[in-house]
């Protein structure tokens, strides 16, 4: 798990921005990560419609919208200060904590 986080630098609940494709520029919260596939699920992004069959009891028939997985390279961590998705680097604080830092403005991206 540690290795994976080093690789993607993204975590659940991060705010990311889409870098390419039809939803370029949109922002969303990371719902889940699929490191093996290099894919990511972002809230309200890359939605697709899915037809559901009702079972007559708990489930209603109809069309539901769900998030589709996106390739991890299509999103970047959003920096409030820069106002866009940015690359991040790792930095070790004086107390030994490791945080992610914006490569553009040096803003610390993790709450510590
Ligand atoms: Zn920044």
Keywords:
6-stranded antiparallel beta sheet; 112 residues; 1 helix; SH3 type barrels; elongated; disordered N terminus; mainly beta; binds zinc ion
Largest sheet: 6 strands, antiparallel
Strand content: 35-45%
Rounded mean pLDDT score: 90
Q: What coarse outline follows from CA principal-axis ratios? A: elongated
The Cα radius of gyration reads 17 Å
| Overall number of structural domains | 1
CATH topology: SH3 type barrels
- Helical element count? 1
The amount of helix comes to: under 10%
- Given this structure, which CATH class is correct? Mainly Beta
Q: How many runs of DSSP E, i.e. beta strands?
A: 10
CATH architecture: Roll
Q: Uncertain spans, ≥5 residues at pLDDT below 50?
A: 1-6
Give the neighbour order of strands across the main sheet.
Answer: 6-3-2-1-7-8
SSE-based structural type = mainly beta
The ordered H/E elements are: HEEEEEEEEEE
Terminal-residue CA separation: 20 Å
Question: Would you kindly provide a written description of the structure presented here, covering whatever features stand out?
Answer:
By secondary structure, the protein is mostly beta strands. It has one domain (2-85): SH3 type barrels (Roll), CATH 2.30.30.30. 6% of the residues lie in helices and 43% in strands. It has one helix and ten strands. The longest helix is centred in the first third of the chain and has 7 residues, at 2-8. The model is unreliable at 1-6 (pLDDT under 50).
């Amino acid at each position: 798990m540690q290795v994976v986080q080093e690789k993607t630098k993204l975590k659940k609940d991060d705010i990311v921005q889409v870098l390419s494709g039809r939803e370029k520029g949109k922002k969303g919260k990371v719902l889940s990560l699929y490191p093996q596939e290099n894919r990511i699920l972002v809230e309200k992004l890359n939605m697709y419609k899915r037809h559901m069959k009702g079972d007559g009891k708990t489930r209603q028939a109809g069309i539901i919208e769900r998030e589709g997985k996106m390739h991890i390279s299509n999103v970047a961590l959003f920096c409030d200060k820069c106002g866009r998705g940015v690359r991040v680097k790792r930095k070790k604080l004086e107390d030994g904590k490791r945080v992610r830092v914006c490569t553009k403005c040096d803003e610390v991206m993790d709450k510590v």
